[in-house]
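Researcher: Structure for this, please.
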Amino acid sequence: MSRRNLLGAAAIVPLATGAIMGTASAQTARSGTGKTAIVTGSSRGIGAAVAKRLAREGYSVTVNFVVNRDMARAVVRDIESAGRKAISVQADVSDPNAVRRLFDENDKAFGGVDVVVANAGIMRLAPMSDMTDENFNRMIDVNLKGGFYTMREGARRVRNHGRIITFSSSITQLRSPTYGPYAASKAAQELYANVLAKELAGRMISVNAMAPGLVNTTLFTDGKTAQEISGFVQRTPHRRLGEPEDIANVIAALCSPDGMWVSGQTVFANGGVV
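Model: Predicted structure, token format:
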């Protein structure tokens, strides 16, 4: 064997060995094993997909709901049927006392928390001239205040080396008509994440805002015609709506050890629509 071929073979051996060991490790241990996650608004849609995805990574999960008790229990059953642990807790994130109770129930069940995903949110759409005080105030209560209450409690309780993820939206960049107040409530999450990441310096807690695009959930599809939805699809390079699992996969990556270095950022997971 020539010297060049010998060196090439020597270089390949550790790479192959590493690949084999990496595969074996992935089969025997998940990144969330022994850890706990709280996912707000997780009885359906993106939140449910995130709860199930983190459970597959080994996390015990607290599933949060406001009114959809049966749907939340179904998510818990799905997680438990896969051999993981989960509980469901009713709490309206617009109430700071309810948020504290949500974390208390999680801590009683699992002993602490490593990941908080502030997914809970609502959307009310109208031109600014037609937006009612009731709809505007409810979005502020749930999105702006609820995101803050959840992240504040997360800042107090998430264990070192954990993750805090809140939800913005790609609509902050699209800025379509009727979305003004909603987009404003979501843009605040980007500021929260960037500032909180700095405030938690030294604790190795990565904080980010997730900004999905057009996702196939009732939050997006309700009130839209098939033609309107098709128009949105055509604006996306992948020519489809995102699915909740698409967003859950990105969050799982951020929560993995490999995602630690991403912090204080807004992560746009939108299939290239912006």
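Researcher: Any notable elements?
Model: Residues 26 and 59 are 15 Å apart (CA to CA). The chain has one domain: 31-269.
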